[in-house]
Design brief:
OB fold (Dihydrolipoamide Acetyltransferase, E2P), five-stranded mixed barrel, single chain, alpha+beta
Length: 99
Amino acid sequence: MKQICLWMAALLLAAGCLAQTTPAKKPHTFHGKVQAVDANAQSLTVDGDKVEGWMEAMTMSYKVDDPAILKKVKAGDQITATVYDGDFTLHKVQVVPKK
């Protein structure tokens, strides 16, 4: 029993160390023009500008972190959002007011 407790303590310590050494994903500001809204897939197709250090300019479908935004955004809207390295979800999507 004592060996099991020591093994579990070592495992928990190792897990804690790994969690502390995992780097946070770098955030980037995303800009683009909405081409389509797909409420069923909870996604936006966006003609996105180049995001330095993350992705070249391209049109693609992105999931959104908050499905409520799909009721506010429409094709033709310019948006900004936050994206993270290795993640193709748009976070904190905002419609850019028209001038």
